[in-house]
Amino acid sequence: MIGADERYVLLTTFRRDGTPVATPVWWVSLQDGSFGFSTSSASGKAKRLAHTQRVTVQPCDRRGVVKPGTKPSDALGRLVTGAELAAIRERLMAKYGVMVRVISLFERIARLVRGRQVPYADRGVVITF
Helices (DSSP H) in 16-117: which residue ranges? Predict the structure, then answer.
């Protein structure tokens, strides 16, 4: 199983036709032994998780290159809001610090440039093995 010390994991979600789509994400451990990250409700990840909870995760670097000698782990992912999302946000701040704010700022600027109001990190994803 993947440990809490991993900074990034390659999350693979699946389209309706079964096609895998992999994305590197930040990764935090939660109190109940599950893991989590935040995402936008408009993201492809959120849309794919809305129809299937099946995911795989594998340690990777920030660009999604998997760590040598690791294998993907099958898991379940579910979208969350409210207190569960707040817990994920709190742990992300504790683990990644100022980078959370920097990425949030870049996302706001990108939304202004694109002229689209896409929510940022308004959903959490809880991963259980």
Answer: 44-49, 82-96, 98-114
